[in-house]
Specification:
Layout (H helix, E strand, L loop, with lengths): L14 H16 L8 H17 L3 H21 L5 H30 L2 H10 L4 H30 L12 H26 L18 H21 L4
Helix pairs in contact: 1-2, 1-4, 2-3, 2-4, 3-4, 5-6, 6-7
Length: 241
């Protein structure tokens, strides 16, 4: 199986910038760092992955996410105050999961879909990250897209056998989809690990890389925006502004 499969869209950001963006989204949105002082910055980070995916031409996940965002905000602002008890808790939990986890998932989708394994390894080497960290992450970069492809193939095969929602064998979906996915996931992990070792990852000698990466204007703008947002949160937390 090809480990170094190139991404379908050429990215306009350096892999190191993407990883920094992923850290910011994880810390401030998922981790809720900064509390109320980072409320505006958190909203901006919520919608930044949508802009990046839209610039890459991935309008389907953007449309899907906008619908979920809108529904979550609407339920949290309009429906949740009218509910009490268990229903209020369930709405709060579902809206919180969407608003907290969705930005991180979309950012990860952007990073994985626009970064080749060669670019990722080159970026990690420039940051002097140990191969004990680089190699597992490089394998994971190809693991998730391959699993998604296998899942789509399994779905099409099951649909031909009428094992789908609304079909006559809908109750068999769990068995006939979960077990093949578990088997495929184990096999994919083994094949990707073997492919990485075949390509010399983990060897004692320093690898050469023909992949050219570097910071450009878009990276500088992203750094300025993230740095400005972080400074705004710090000043607001210190009650300077």
């Amino acid at each position: 199986m090809e480990l170094m499969k190139s991404s379908s869209h050429k990215s306009f950001l350096d892999p190191r910038t993407k990883l920094l963006l992923l850290v910011f989204v994880s810390v401030f949105v998922l981790g809720n760092a900064g509390g109320d002082a980072a409320a505006e910055f958190r909203v901006a980070l919520n919608y930044l992955p949508l802009l990046l995916l839209l610039l890459c031409g991935k309008w389907k996940p953007v449309l899907f996410s906008v619908i979920f965002y809108t529904a979550a905000y609407a339920f949290s602002m309009l429906v949740m105050p009218l509910c009490k008890g268990l229903l209020n808790f369930l709405i709060l939990a579902m809206c919180g999961i969407v608003l907290r986890f969705m930005p991180g998932i979309l950012t990860g989708m952007f990073v994985v879909s626009t970064t080749t394994v060669s670019e990722f390894i080159a970026a990690m080497e420039k940051m002097h990250i140990s191969q004990k960290v680089t190699i597992p992450l490089a394998v994971m970069f190809r693991f998730f897209p391959t699993v998604v492809e296998e899942s789509n193939s399994i779905s099409k095969a099951m649909a031909m056998r009428d094992i789908k929602f609304g079909g006559s064998k809908a109750l068999q979906m769990l068995e006939y989809r979960l077990i093949p996915m578990m088997t495929c996931s184990v096999k994919i992990g083994q094949e990707l690990s073997a492919a990485s070792l075949t390509r010399g990852l983990g060897g004692p000698d320093k690898r050469t890389n023909i992949c050219k990466i570097g910071f450009g204007l878009c990276d500088v703008i992203t750094f300025i925006c993230l740095g400005g947002g972080l400074l705004f949160v710090i000043l607001r937390a210190c009650k300077v502004i």
